[in-house]
Amino acid sequence: MSAKSIIHVIDDDPAMRDSLAFLLDVNGFATRVYDSATKFFETADQQPLHCVITDVRMPGMSGLELVQKMKRESIACPVIVITGHGDVALAVEAMKAGVVDFIEKPFSDDALLNAVRLALRSAQDGGSGSTARDEAEQRLSSLSPRERDVLIGLVAGKINKVIAHELNISPRTVEVYRANLMAKTQARNMSELMRIALAAGL
């Protein structure tokens, strides 16, 4: 979390790359930028890898494919995925593949910086993700068993109607449970709720 922490930014959008690099630079991080995952892998074994930030949708190798390749090649480095509206299911899949966090556009500077700091802390803890898991479990601790059932359905990508049928309740009741989930976990949107659930191991 000092200037020695190198954050690798991978995005095919030059404006996004530049703005992320600027934000990270002025907050004391060193940055390396790449316009594709392929370019990143060309030098990945030649420099320190403290944290990677990647867009989930890119020409060629996607953010999800990047994470899968890092896993196959035993490259131990926390990855944060940036996702656009409508890519939440893809981001959830990436998180299940090992991403430490995902952030939905548009996001605040603080949201990104907090994600980076948490990712670096997780890496310092041995990559166990215990810091993120403990925080997530705390935020889920007040859920009722039925609220957890609804959350598990949401993480699986099921729509309200399907969750209602499986739990033998009405779709309207599922909506009430979803509202309770947002309130109890203090999640600002569905993306954040998914992050909390996945970090907790649901």
Task: Name a few traits of the molecule.
202 residues, alpha/beta, Arc Repressor Mutant, subunit A, 2 domains
Question: Care to describe what's here?
Answer:
This protein has two domains: 6-127, Rossmann fold, CATH 3.40.50; 136-199, Arc Repressor Mutant, subunit A (Orthogonal Bundle), CATH 1.10.10.10. The chain contains ten helices and five strands. By secondary structure, it is of the alpha/beta class. 54% of the residues lie in helices and 12% in strands. A five-stranded parallel sheet has the order 2-1-3-4-5, sandwiched between helices. Helix 6 (130-140) crosses helix 10 (190-199).
- Radius of gyration equals 18 Å
The global form is: elongated
Which structural category do the helix and sheet elements fall into? Answer: alpha/beta
CATH class of the largest domain, please?
A: Alpha Beta
Largest sheet composition: 5 strands, parallel
Termini, distance in Å?
29 Å
If strands are numbered along the chain, what order do they take across the biggest sheet? 2-1-3-4-5
As a percent range, the share of strand residues is 5-15%
DSSP, total strands: 5
Oligomerization category of the chains in this entry: single chain
Kindly identify the CATH topology of the largest domain. Answer: Rossmann fold
- CATH architecture designation of the largest domain: 3-Layer(aba) Sandwich
Mean pLDDT: 85
Order of helices and strands: EHEHEHEHEHHHHHH
CATH superfamily of the largest domain: Response regulator
The total tally of domains equals: 2
In DSSP terms, counting alpha (H) and pi (I) runs of 4 or more, how many helices?
A: 10
Which blocks of ≥5 consecutive residues have pLDDT under 50? none
Bin the helical content: 40-55%
